[in-house]
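Design job #97: recover the sequence.
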């Protein structure tokens, strides 16, 4: 007869931990670098800042690609954070699913609007 002292801990859950932590940090770093690049362009531009100046900043291909990447990073960053809030604080599985679907639809719509605005310039 074997004696089991203590209990084996069964780890359950989605196991998102380190991946989500790293995703939050990488996307935040990308957004911070984008902010610095954008501020540098605004600070070092000559003349008044109006629509033409903003359109000029975002009209170059490299800035469109960088902005596209930041929109994707922002959506991913928000999704990880909001999903964790829903999983931690909403106990009803049905309501949690509804909130997660609503969040996904909202984020996709916002990203689509951002891409549409970006590529119109």
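Job complete. Output follows.
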């Amino acid at each position: 007869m074997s004696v089991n002292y203590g209990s084996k801990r069964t780890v359950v859950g989605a196991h998102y931990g380190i991946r989500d932590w790293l995703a939050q940090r990488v996307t935040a770093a990308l957004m911070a670098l984008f902010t610095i690049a954008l501020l540098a362009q605004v600070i070092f531009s000559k003349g008044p800042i109006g629509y033409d100046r903003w359109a000029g900043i975002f009209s170059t291909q490299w800035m469109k690609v960088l902005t596209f990447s930041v929109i994707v990073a922002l959506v991913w960053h928000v999704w990880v954070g909001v999903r964790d809030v829903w999983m931690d604080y909403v106990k009803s599985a049905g309501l949690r699913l509804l909130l997660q679907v609503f969040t996904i639809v909202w984020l996709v719509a916002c990203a689509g609007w951002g891409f549409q605005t970006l590529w119109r310039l």
